[in-house]
Amino acid sequence: MRVKIDNLFLKREGGEVLLKGISLTISPGEIVGLIGDSGAGKSLFSQAIGRLIEFDHGVIKLDQFSRVKKNLPEKLIIDSHSKGLQLHFLRKLVNVYIQYAEIQLFNETVEKEILYGPENFGIPSEEALSFVNRVSERYFNFPWKKLKNRIPLTLSTGEKKKTCLLAVLAIQGELAVLDEAESGLDHNSLVGLLNFLNSEKKKKKSFLIISHNLTFLKQCADRIVGIKNGKIIFDLPIRGFFSETGIELARATGVYPEFISECALELKKIFSDLSDELFLRLINAKSIEVVCFELDHFLEEKKIN
User: Fold this and answer.
1) Helical H segments across 121-258, by residue range
2) Structure confidence by residue, pLDDT tens digits, 8-25
3) Which of 60, 85, 225, 259 is 20 to 30 Å apart from 212, CA to CA?
4) Do 200 and 293 fall within a single domain?
5) Are residues 218 and 292 part of one domain?
6) Half-sphere CA count of 200, side-chain side, radius 13 A
């Protein structure tokens, strides 16, 4: 599915403008990372896309459906006046995981929580359970069946996050909006989430991922979009973002690169003859030892020449 967001504005009751004309297109099977400082408007934007909160002006256009086609129009146009069946279609197609799990949990049991969304959108329980069983075991190592009769609010923080994530993903829409879904996950679950994203991408599912974790985004995103004070200030392909210019732009949004990227950037400043190819290898290094090895090799070559 292609999602085209055009000139989205959102105001507070007192008139303060929080989202200032945001426009963004997400193509079928594309993973877009959204970064920005706290209070930049990331979470508001993610909720506005699914009309979990109302926006004041702008249009969201959805077409080129590839996964969810049954009982849907050929295209869907959502504005600030849309209601009823239009919003039902939108939320079936665009599934939003909000930042704080506790806000999203309201059912009596874990099983009811996970099946609530699918049941409301006409997805048979057997189909939803088949998806949940496969995803929870293969990607998240989450024994949800053992917890299915538990009250969701009694779960651990990690269990709450995974319950919410499964509840959103079980709707199996065309675009999943994940607001810091990776935050707080253990290493194995983080790797599982990455594998899930890349697997679903091949099936033309799209994702908008809000995160401060550039290392995570580097491993899954096709593009990085930066937002500051309710405005998009850059939109770069992943290779272009992890460059000298891209890292400086990340800093401008208030998101600071991890240590290895910082090292690469500082080395680029010190050695003006450091090639773009070597800079990319440094940026993508898995450890500081690899950075040291590449730097030693570079310095040895400088001595020879």
Assistant:
1) 125-135, 144-147, 157-169, 187-202, 214-218, 238-241, 244-253
2) 999 988 889 999 999 999
3) 60
4) no
5) no
6) 27
